[in-house]
Structures are given as C-alpha cells and as structure tokens.
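Supplementary notes (optional reading)

For those who missed the lab, this is the record we used. Protein: Dynein heavy chain region D6 P-loop domain-containing protein. Length: 481 residues.
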Amino acid sequence: MYPSLIGRIKKLRLNVIEKHYRDVVRLERPDFEKQRTELITRINNDKGQLKAIEDKILRLLFASEGNILDDEELIETLNESKETSAIIAARLTETEATEEKISIAREKYRPVSTRGSVLYFVVAVLAEIDPMYQFSLKYFNQIFCNVIQISEKDDHLPNRLQILNREITLAMYINVSRSLFERHKLVFSFMVCVAILLQQGTISESQYNYLLRGPVGFKSPMDKKPNCTLLTDPIWLAVKYLAFAFEPFKYLPDDILSRITVTIGGYDQTIEFIPNSLNSKIGWNSHLDDFEKLMLLKTLREEKLVFGITEYVRIHLGQKFVESPAISLSVLYKDISNSVPLIFVLSAGSDPFGAFHRFATDMGYQERILSISLGQGQGPVAEKLIETGKNNGSWVFLQNCHLATSWMLPMERIILAIVEDSSKVHTDFRLFMSSMPSRTFPVSVLQNAVKVTNEPPKGLRTNVKRALEEMLDTFFEDHRT
C-alpha cells in the first residue's frame, strides 16, 4: 500500500474518532461543552484585552517626545496596564487550569468514540464482500448518537461507558446484519469481534493474518514429515510455520501425532491423525488461549473452523451476535421516511412483494400502492409513478431494479433530489425497491437507504418462524373454528 494512501487512511480514522468523540461528549455531558465554550470565549477575550493594552503602550511610546518619564498619560497607562495585566494573567491561569480539568474529564469518554471508529471501519469494508453492502458515515453516526440518547443511564461512569460500548456494538450489528445475506452474517460478527480485540491488544495482527491467509510465502527446510497419510504436506508446512512464528506452538511439530483436544466455549474438538493415538502430554487446551485454538483448528481441521468461530464470537460478544436478528416490515418502517427508501436485496427464488402487500394492507395503504416490475424501457413509467407518489402520498414499489441498468443514473438523480428537498414531497410518500446484487446500483442511493436481504427460508424451523412473523394479528381470530 502506498505511503500517501496509508496517511490518508490514518487521517480519516482520526477524523472519525474525533467526530464520535465530540458527539458522545455533547450528548453525555452538555455541561462540559457549555463550560468549555464559555472558557474559550473568556480566554480569547482576556488575551484580546492584553493585546489591546500592549498596542496602546507601543502607540504611546512611539508618539512620545522627550523624556518618557514626563509623559503623564504614558506613565498612567503603564500603571493601569500593570494592574490589569496582573488581574488578567491570574484569571487566565485559573481559566486554563479549569479548561484542563474539563479536558481530562471529557477524555474519559474517549473509549466510546474509539469503539465507534473501530465499528465504522469494519462496516466500511463490507462493500468488498458484496456491492450492495454500502453504508454512509452519516447513517452510522445516526445510529451512534441514537444509542447514546436511548441507552440505559448509570451515574457510575465506568458502568456507563461499558453500557455505551455494548449497546453501540449491538445496535450496529442489528442494523447492518439485516442488510447482509445469511452466509455473511457470521463473517461480519467475527470481523467486529476481531477488530475490537485488535484495538484492545488482546490479539495481534500477525495472529489474525495467519487465520485469514495461512503460512503465505513461508519456506521451511522440510524436515522429514512423520509417516502419516492424513498429515499432508500443506498441513505439515503450516505446523512448521506455527512453531516458527508463534511461541505457544513451539512444540507442535513434536506432538503432531498425539491426540489433541481443544475446547472453545461449548465446542469440543479432538484431533488425531492416527486412530487411537495417545493423549498429548502438553495439554494444548490449557496451553493455548481461544484465538490460538482457532489458529490450531485452521491448521489441522479447517473444515471445523466455522464452529470454533461461532463459539468465539458468542464468548466475546454474546449470543445475539451469532443469531440472525428478527426482521419485520413494521420495524423497518420506523427507520424509513419520505426521503429514505427501503431496498430489498434479493436472492434467487425470493420475492418480498407478498409480505410488502400484506403490510401495506395492515397499514391501510392497500389502495395507495403503485408498483412496477422494471425492465428495458420501463424507466419513464417508474418516473411517473414516483412523481405521483410524491404528490399524493402513495407507496411506490420498484421491483427488480437490477434489470433496468440503463435507468440507474436517472433514478439516482430523482432520489437525490428527494433527499435534498424532502419538504416538497408528501409526508406519506414511501419508496420501496427490490434488486439482486448489482454493481450498477447507485452507491449514493444504497448509502442513504434502509436495506434488508430477502432470502427464501432454509429448514423447517426458519420456515415456520417466517410464516408466523408474516401473519397478521387477526389471522387466528379470522380462522377460529
């Protein structure tokens, strides 16, 4: 990576931390901000007064003729300035000391702003996984500030900071994970978990890089590999690398044919390359920490790594971070407005229109739905529907936006115009869209919208849960026999 790019990234990271720092102090301790503003004003006024006195003395000295000791105005001004300067200097010292105390008190909130920055940069890289995973800093800040305002209060500052870090992390997971496909949710949870632990110094970059990439570029003098069919050359190379690069694995090559058992939370894994081999004398389960156990699974049983990661996230972040949060249109509806659309990100075989229509009916909008399935030449029709909805407060649903690639730029301009001046848009207007993942979908629209993935349920439990969630409150009453 180029040094100039690294510098820009560091600068951006510092700017994000500082933005979150100002937000958390402003919301948590408005009295600090008020006092600090007053002190800065007072300091500037006092310094300005000192400067005015100095300027007056210089002016009188310049204009003085003859013996300056005979210049009564100058002598009087010097005496006044001496007294005034002493008063102002004492006041400045007191004021600056007070400002320093306030700054020290404000600094105690720094861990919350740091957590916010860590989370934002995890979210920012999600677009590399899927082009639809776009989230703006503005969207992130709204969640950040909202959590600070509504989360549980506690007069004991360490407890309050712990609550804020926990609730900000959970709120970000819930809001972002509903926009992710199921296969990416654990990836996101683990990225959040690792980013927090890296920032805290609990794990190292080299450990994380190994878990991601393995022994890339490592060339070891190939000692004679133990005679074991299951112990392949790539596994043996990785074992040698672990022993070379990480002190806790120093004796792993010598112990590789023993039975090794590790436990991460509620997940147990026994590893043996030779059936009925003897138990390891090293006791790897107590010798390694949980992340090192993940590294061991990566090396010896990579197909089991996902189970270990699930438990690792559950231990460090909590059960909610390994579960898909419940999603309902009634909850999503609270987050959208006449200028914030809702985008259904589709997968093969999914169709959100049925659930959307039931929700619109439940909300009393069944007669005010305008819908079109986009395709070639349908852009002008969609524009007319949006214009109608803006004027009379209808709900507009643009289905299959990925099929109208040539209309994406006009759509972006229309939506940006709505965002920039929502006062001209009917307050009841809502815009819904559906699209398969597409690199042509405008990034600005994705960043400004609420997004939710729509996947067909997998498994009996998920199907039953989805069916119950989509039922109207009156369903059982209407079908009671």
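If you only remember one thing from this example: Residues 213-322 form one domain.
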